[in-house]
Structures are given as structure tokens and as C-alpha cells.
Amino acid sequence: MGVFYDEINIKTNGETDIVDITDDIQNTVHKSKLKDGIACVFVGGSTGAITTIEYEPGLMKDLPRSLEKIAPKGIHYDHHETWHDDNGHSHVRASLMGASMTVPIRNGKLLHGTWQQIVFVELDTRPRNRNIIVQIVGE
Fold first, then answer.
1. Which residue ranges form the domains of the chain, and what is each CATH number?
2. Which of 1, 34, 62, 85 is most buried by its number of CB atoms within 10 A?
3. What is the pTM of this model?
4. Which region, left, alpha or beta, applies to residue 21 given φ > 0 means left and ψ of -120 to 50 means alpha?
């Protein structure tokens, strides 16, 4: 059994930027030389999320529009009173979506659906530099 650690560094364009990181994670699997196991993909931050989506133009519009309905920007969040940074909705959205996911690896390949990409979703109100942690356990 082996463990491999790497980070993927990305620069986002700000709120609801959706970045396809599937190939970056697959490259990390290749670098690890591990053939079978799992990859944990994690963002260390409370205003970003890791999920899967079919990375196509329609869903790039649908996801942000849906997030606005679930946790709208224009309402009161007590978080604003704590830090005065006007991103309470960002924290709520990130909490609902989640900071990590685990993806199986078989024969050196990530196991995901044909139309399923792994994405980072920027939920903060400004562009950010993000480090996405990928830790692989396997053999």
C-alpha cells in the first residue's frame, strides 16, 4: 500500500467560476505510479467546493443560477456582522456543496462517468488562488 500527495494550483475568476480539474487529477494519478486505490480531492478553504458536473455551457449557467436560488446573495447573513466581507452566501453554498470527494482509481485511471468531470467551484466574491490537495492511497 502506498500514499502519494500533490497539490493542484489554480487561479479563479471569482464567484461561480467553475474549473474543470479532471485532467489535473488524472495527471497526479499518473505521477503517483499507483494503479488501484482512491484519490481524495480536497480544497482547504471555506468558500470553495469540489463536485462533479457535465462540463458543458448550459450547466455552467444552470449551476450558478440554482445556487442563487438556494443561498441568495441579497439577503441578510449573520456572517456579515462578524467579518463585514459580504460573503455569507459563499460560506453557505460551500457548506452545502462540500470541500472534498473521493474518486476510485483502477488500472491507473480515475473511474468517472463519460460525461462526468471533477470541478472546483469558486464561491467567494472575488478571484482567488486556490490549492487543491490530492492524496492518493493505493497500490
1. 2-138 (2.60.120.460)
2. 34
3. 0.96
4. alpha
pLDDT digits (tens, 9 = 90+) for 60-108: 999 999 999 999 999 999 998 998 889 999 999 999 999 999 999 999 9
Question: CA 49, CA 107: separation in Å to the nearest integer?
Answer: 27
On the question of pLDDT at 5 being above 90, the answer is yes
Are the CB atoms for 8 and 22 separated by under 8 Å? no
Taking 90 as the threshold, does the pLDDT of residue 138 lie above it?
yes
Which cell is 132 given? 487543491
Q: What nine digits make up the cell of 19?
A: 474549473
Residue 82: all three cell numbers together: 462578524
Distance, in Å, from the CA atom of 109 to the CA atom of 87, rounded to the nearest integer, reads 37
DSSP 74: T
Give the separation between CA 74 and CA 22, rounded to whole angstroms. Answer: 33
